[in-house]
Structure prediction request, 247 residues.
Amino acid sequence: MEAFFEWFRVLYDNTGINLPFLYDAYDRGRMLNGFLTTIKLSVICLIFSVIIGIIGAWLQGSSFKWTRRFVNGYIQLFRNTPPLVQLYFFYFAIGSLMPKVQTEWGGEAPLLGSFEWAVISLSFFAGAFNVEIFRSGIEAVPKSTVEAAEALGFTRLQIYRDITLPLAFRVALPALNNNLVNLVKTTTLAYAIAVPEMLYEANQIWSDNVNVTEMMVFLLLAYFLLVGVLVWGMNSWERRLKIPGYG
Prediction:
């Protein structure tokens, strides 16, 4: 393996193509940390955004008009404002109002760090779109199916959990796929509040080594592969869940 890494040092010496994260252990550690942080941030945001979408779609069908208005207000707020502005709002505006905690060195630190605020902001951003995606899936479920469940004595929650949502999920999956892909790409915005994800670490490396071109080519390919794996997984899942007559 060392010979493999050393080959890139020779490549740099002979051609000037500089990929220090492959031959330098320190830079390799920084880039690996950035890659793992991007994966962690993406997975957590994907999970929370889907949960927000499912709960929001459920609340949109509530018989209480203020509940429906609250959900609609949330959708309009997060869908009609830039995600970077939302990120700054949570980190700088809300974060400054949060209490601070004592550190083990006797100082003070924010209750929530930049990673946690990125999770909150990006989850709410993608969740607003997921609510509408699940709502459209729910509306595609035939009313006769719901009426049959009501006739059998199912409660509203049971109908949503056991009948409407599983059918709506299959219909909504293609649109959900697109939104989750966009969410993974949007995680690069976390760079703006110093979350050490891939773009942030790449910036640190090209600042030290003045190799912007090589790092940008690497980032482009890395995100292409990362999003490609997600798309492949979602498409496979979509094919397995497909039911004739439902999407």
Observations:
- The beta strands are 100-102, 108-110.
